[in-house]
Structure prediction request, 187 residues.
Amino acid sequence: GYAIGHVFIKANKKVEIVEKTITNIEEEKARFEGAIEASRTQLTKIKEKAVKDLGADKAAVFESHLMLLDDPEFAGQAKAAIEDKKINAEKALSDVIENFKKIFAGIKDEYIKERVADIKDVGDRILNNLEGNGSGDLGDIEKGTIVVAHDLTPSDTAQLDKDKVVAFLTNIGGRTSHSAIMARTLE
Prediction:
């Protein structure tokens, strides 16, 4: 298809991960927990908007995002790395995300393979909260906008206001990605 509108280029806010040795493990774990709670609040709001705009079935992805925040194989591994390796939360979480990416890269099923985007979405949200960068909200764009991005996460897509956004263009993302599914629902 095609669309005419104002272009909004969504920059990738990539957190630069620098490994630091920490001395106060409890303080670092508390900082990580604070970022988890901020992420939980943001994802709950996004889920509520998605239920309203897309329907409960399409918003279910955010329930899995919320569950990932408490998953011992995700957040739990990051907390364990903070404690065991005495490294900062950003590095611990980044290592966990990279491990999950490697595991998912070997999977043949495209639908399952696309789920690494969900892990990256949640992980990036936590990293941005650790760095104080906020949620990267796309809600403050003007009417008649075309969003251009390398990729849109499911939470990015769910935040798009269909009264303002006429289209979006991404470099990557398959037909089975949550963003593509949500985009079709938003028409």
Q: What stands out?
A: The chain has a mean pLDDT of 85. Residues 25 and 83 are 6 Å apart (CA to CA). The longest helix spans residues 25-54.
